[in-house]
Amino acid sequence: xxxxxxxxxxxxxxxxxxxxxxxxxxxxxxxxxxxxxxxxxxxxxxxxxxxxxxxxxxxxxxxxxxxxxxxxxxxxxxxxxxxxxxxxxxxxxxxxxxxxxxxxxxxxxxxxxxxxxxxxxxxxxxxxxxxxxxxxxxxxxxxxxxxxxxxxxxxxxxxxxxxxxxxxxxxxxxxxxxxxxxxxxxxxxxxxxxxxxxxxxxxxxxxxxxxxxxxxxxxxxxxxxxxxxxxxxxxxxxxxxxxxxxxxxxxxxxxxxxxxxxxxxxxxxxxxxxxxxxxxxxxxxxxxxxxxxxxxxxxxxxxxxxxxxxxxxxxxxxxxxxxxxxxxxxxxxxxxxxxxxxxxxxxxxxxxxxxxxxxxxxxxxxxxxxxxxxxxxxxxxxxxxxxxxxxxxxxxxxxxxxxxxxxxxxxxxxxxxxxxxxxxxxxxxxxxxxxxxxxxx
Length: 441
Fold this sequence. Notes:
Blueprint: H1 2-20, E1 26-29, E2 35-40, E3 46-53, H2 67-74, H3 87-93, E4 97-102, E5 107-114, H4 118-130, H5 136-155, H6 162-170, H7 184-189, H8 192-202, E6 208-214, H9 218-229, E7 252-258, E8 265-273, H10 278-291, H11 297-305, E9 309-318, E10 322-331, H12 337-353, H13 358-375, H14 379-393, H15 398-408, H16 411-421, E11 427-434
Helix pairs in contact: 1-13, 4-9, 10-16, 11-12, 12-16
Organism: Flavobacterium aquaticum
Keywords: Hydrolase, Metalloprotease, Protease, Signal, Zinc
């Protein structure tokens, strides 16, 4: 009884925290199609101005991969009114910082400034959209930057090509089959006209959401947004063809050789549904149950107790159209990838046939409550979440309600979703091995 009361108290405490974290926001559209979201937070004198464009690696051509990520770099080169190399100087001189990132589904830019520099931030993002300078000199400069990034973060990094190895085998027709950073020969072969066309197609106000979050005056912010963004002409509607993959009905194998590793890695990969689905959220909980932390089932069994692996992990790689559920392990000593897979499969089968314990289930619920609070704990996190839920999920209020989906997931659902997606006939087994001749695939 005492334990039950303690558990109830914990749940109420976490629930109260989550409710207190409710995010308020205001939305409106400009005539050119730009969606604007305002979130006021006066707890600190800072303001975040961010723009998310609905363009990522999946919007590229098979022989021109890497364009979306390339633009993440290219659009810091300068604009009609911001000289080449002056962007970062302007930001730092005014007490700010900025960055950008790209995924298969979207590109995200943001600035963090003292709150008295909001107009500067709005103007700079409008400049990026309205007056970018895209010339051959800038393309050549950023081409070298991207090549160096690929060498550093991918080609010369142990297991750096893991996601590439998985994606190109898991997807046969969908553009998720290539990586966000793309292939350097595609960027080398691209013409300036192709870069200009990509910008004209995707970098338009009706393919973007602007989020302002932090300490600011709403009326003034709206005035500046309209002043700087309204003159930007609306672009042609961005249309996307829906590409569907045939279901995986038979286990298949693939191999990748990496010259930077000495220990082979086992990877089991299952194709999963869009991150917008309830099933994807259940898979999030399954991955936490299996491998989140040293007390998780796979880690405790395979790494701690049996000492068969140096590392073990599982994660739900969720995306807008599809996801992948990956389980990986690094064998230790005389153990093999096959023996690790056997142990993994035993845990999955157990989960498919038995309900997880009430104790483990409560632990999961507490973990996701905590994640919810921490994800909205900073103004930067809230800005990112508002843009993501609006752009990729089509429901901005998920910033407040997605936690209710996780709260409503049952032990029975965890069992049933494991049974639905994590079967041996629905997966690829990848042998990620040291390169014999030091030549990469």
